[in-house]
Amino acid sequence: MKQTKKTKTVEDSVLMKMTLDEVLKKKGISGYKFAEKLGVKPHALTPTRKPGYNPKLTTLLKWCIQLDCDINELFEYEGYTPKHKKETKKD
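Below the sequence we write its predicted structure tokens.
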């Protein structure tokens, strides 16, 4: 009979806040004008205002090019939380 060993893995979770609206305000650009520069409809930017929005890196790079800003300006660090994954069985 084989013995099984249970292991727990921890996934680190870094909490970040999207600051796109703040950057737009600082640059004096409306959400409408920004959407126009990106070639999208204004409502396409609505998800960016919701907590937990996780854009693709290519999207962030497009934003940075249009806003002439660094990618770090688009986020604010809010903290760190360890997150446990469910147990896995190893033989």
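Helices lie at 20-27, 31-38, 57-67.
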